Amino acid sequence: MRLIATEEAFAPVEYIDEFLKLTQSVDTAVSRYLSIYYRKPEAVRQLTDLDYRLTEMDEHGVDMHLLSITGPGVQAFDAALGTELATLANDMLTDAIGRHPTRFAGLGAIAPQNPARAAREVERAMGELGLGGIIINSHTHGEYLDDPKFWPIFEAAVAHDAPIYLHPTFPSDAMIEPYSCYGMMGALWGFGADTSLHAVRMIMGGVFDAFPTLKIVLGHLGEGIPFWLGRLDNRYQNIVRRGGLEPLGMKRLERLPSDYFRTNFWITTSGMMTDAPLQFCLDQFGEDRVMFAIDYPYEQTAEAVPFIRATPLSDHAMRKITHANAEALFRIPAEA
After folding, report:
1. What is the torsional sign of CA 272, 276, 277, 281?
2. End-to-end alpha-carbon separation of the chain, Å?
3. Which of 91, 202, 227, 307 could share a disulfide with 273, CB 3.0–4.6 Å?
4. 3-state helix, strand and coil shares in percent for the chain, rounded to the nearest 5
């Protein structure tokens, strides 16, 4: 059965070089952490040499990687450099897909620092380049996409039917300090905390009332939000009944928070390799909104593939999760 992995990182060499330059002038916990990682030759090769990963894919029976620029991505830079690097990354990605059209598909990078230019790059990525969606690495210098200044990006995404993969990054400067202890600022906890915050802000900020057909993808089985949906609905309804929306600065939504998650979001299995959480998400959302992912090179292909192959699913559900949902959402041609 075809296996498409849908959260697989890459980076141009130029991105790595620019980030290492940035770390020389910006001394933060995040810059120190990534400057160490980006100086490891094997890590850099895994991200920058797109042919290198094919051997590992073949060894474990992974047919395709849906490639997207690694976090924190082009959002780490100013608007001009971020936009330039997004263009470069998308061109590199398109070239790799052209060389290996049955092995790679891709999500276009954009720089929300300049929303108008980002919207034009959405159009280029989905049109001229023929990519399957857009990657945004959560917040941009502490600002989130519920802010209407970013909504030209959503207008372009809806116009071109571009799903947006909202990928984790480190918590913003305003919230990172409590996560800086015990290795918590990254994948252990901080990534999920920031990305779930971002998604809930979009729901509660009325983004999906303004853009009812907007498609958002979350990794790591929804960044914890599926477990919390009942609580979101309960609190929202209680506040509405008490007439407390305005004092709390809340918006009146057209639907319950959970309704938006069930109609506008898809989730992937990246980094999640136990049966019970996957089954919970399938029970909550059905088999049409869950997709397989590895999170290469940060997670191990040798662990992710045996997990999904062995998890107790019907043949129909397995087909959906391993490839059919990704084909439909990201415009990946089905196998002949």
Report:
1. positive
2. 13
3. 307
4. 55, 10, 35
Task: State the Cα–Cα distance between residues 143 and 145, nearest whole angstrom.
Answer: 7
Q: Say how far apart CA 109 and CA 137 lie, in whole Å.
A: 9
Q: Is 320 within 8 Å of 120 (Cβ atoms)? A: no
Q: Cβ neighbours of residue 328 under 8 Å, at least 6 residues apart?
A: none
Q: What is the DSSP letter of 148?
A: G
Cβ distance 230 to 256 under 8 Å? no
- pLDDT for the residue numbered 25: 80
Q: Is the pTM of this model over 0.90?
A: yes
Catalytic residues: 295
What would the pLDDT profile of 111-129 be if each residue is shown by its tens digit?
A: 999 999 999 999 999 999 9
What integer is the mean pLDDT of 304-331?
97
DSSP three-state, residue 168: coil
Residue-by-residue DSSP string for 275-318: HHHHHHHHHHH-GGGEE----TTTS-HHHHHHHHHHS---HHHH
Give the pairing of strands 164-166 and 290-291: unpaired
Q: CB 282: neighbour CB atoms within 10 A?
A: 19
CB atoms within 10 A of CB 244: 11
